[in-house]
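Exercise: predict the structure of this protein bound to PRP.
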Amino acid sequence: MHFPSDQENELFQDLERVLFTREEIARRVAELGRQISEDYRGKPLVLISILKGGIIFLSDLMRSITIPHAFDLVGASSYRGGASSSGKVIITKDAELDLRGKHVLIVEDILDTGHTLNVVCELLRIQGPASLEICCLLNKKRVRERELRQPLRYVGFEIPDEFVVGYGLDYGERYRNLSCIGVLKPEVYGG
Ligand code: PRP
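Solution:
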């Protein structure tokens, strides 16, 4: 499949700088896929991604995994299109698969305040999985308002405390279709 370059995307000009190119992301996702395939071989694995930002990462990660697995989606939102967390996570969709006895791996795009992952972990834990772990592409280095109750098992990249978009991440529902991940110019979001 051929996608246009990010330079051809008119949203690209709103980036202050690129943190990770499409190629760097692809290399890291492939490594994560290899590791997950080794760790979960022979186990009933279910990947669960969090709408909406996580689905681009999920779609690439699952094709990097070489063992059988299912996937499902939960819906959670706290930023409501803005640049800072409202602190209130709204669950908009529960998983549909029966997770009892399954090895569940949450596939998330970014850990920022940790509110979203804390709420989603609780939602999934009460469904009785055999194990529950997190694979997060971006781990934002910042003082967390609330400690993450479940440590991250797999991390793609550590990133600085800046507002990032692309590869599923949005501002005002835009920028999700950039193939790279970059820092948004502060004047775009009034920062
Ligand atoms: C974003 C992102 C994560 C969450 C991380 O989702 O996709 O799910 O915020 O932030 P936190 O650690 O501070 O909770 P958002 O609520 O913007 O919804 P979206 O994925 O639909 O854009």
